[in-house]
Amino acid sequence: VKILASLGAVCEEAENGHAAVEIFQASQEGEYDLILMDIQMPVMDGWQSARAIRSLDNPALAQIPIIALSANAFDSDIQTSMENGINAHLPKPLDCSLLLKTIEEVTQSCLPTA
To answer: Fewer CB in 10 Å around end: N or C, the chain?
Structure first.
């Protein structure tokens, strides 16, 4: 949050995966540009949360770019993220330049085509 806020981003945090889904589900289209999702969270993990978001009735919300953040960065973890609808999976500790590059790539690739 500190890294992104220092660059002018407005960030909102959720205390667990279930809360993240509830907050996002109650949002308006375009209110959020991206979700950074920790994989290991209480109540509902990041993969469960991503699946819940991808299954939302509103297609605009369901297609939000999601980037996973996890200390578990084996190929199998990355594959599981992709299978659960996550657009990218970054290892912790975070590399700031990789985070910013991935945000740019993911948000560009998720833009609607004309």
So the answer is: C
Residue 27 in tokens: 């949002």
Residue 74 tokens read as 């084996």
The encoded tokens of residue 98 equal 């990789």
Q: State the residue for tokens 């279930």.
A: 18
Placement of tokens 């980037």 in the chain: 67
Whether 88 and 98 have beta carbons less than 8 Å apart is answered as no
Q: How far apart are CA 62 and CA 80, in angstroms?
A: 18
Q: What is the pLDDT of residue 1?
A: 87
- Give CA 2 to chain center in angstroms: 17
Where the chain has pLDDT below 50, the residues are: 114
What is the reported pTM?
A: 0.92
